Amino acid sequence: METLGDRLKYEREKRGWSQVYIAEKLGMKRSSTYANWEYNIRQPDNEMLIKLSEVLEVSTDYLLGNSNKFDKIISNEEYDSLGEITNHVKQLGIEDMGFFDIEKWKNLSPEDVEMIKRHFEMVVELAEKRRK
């Protein structure tokens, strides 16, 4: 069975974050406290558990192992898909890989653009099915 520490580590690594980075996002002075949670040496208090769920965008039930559904319910009004994609691109360090390079887009044929459009629509459709 996965522990709280296992889930914290998984979610942190999935985002490419260091223990120091997430500790800073949580407003902690020392990353060793966060590390103790991942190593299951200590447990966060309820207030910090809520902060963890907000920073990691997962439910507290998921973190505590009461649910395998990790998605925190976010209303459409709250969710910023463009911001999420932009942040993800920055976290992966791929902002300079050509996606935002207008000159590279100019070289694409209409068929290439259509293929990108179909792929995007497929991803959106899959996301909609998962939400139902």
TrEMBL record:
Alphabetized CDD domains for the sequence: HTH_XRE
Alphabetical UniProt keywords: DNA-binding
Source organism: Bacillus cereus
Cross-referenced InterPro entries: Cro/C1-type_HTH (IPR001387), Lambda_DNA-bd_dom_sf (IPR010982)
PANTHER family reported in the protein's UniProt record: HTH-TYPE TRANSCRIPTIONAL REGULATOR XRE, TRACRIPTIONAL REGULATORY PROTEIN-RELATED-RELATED
Protein's name according to its UniProt entry: Uncharacterized protein
One Pfam family named in its UniProt record: HTH_3
GO MF term set: DNA binding
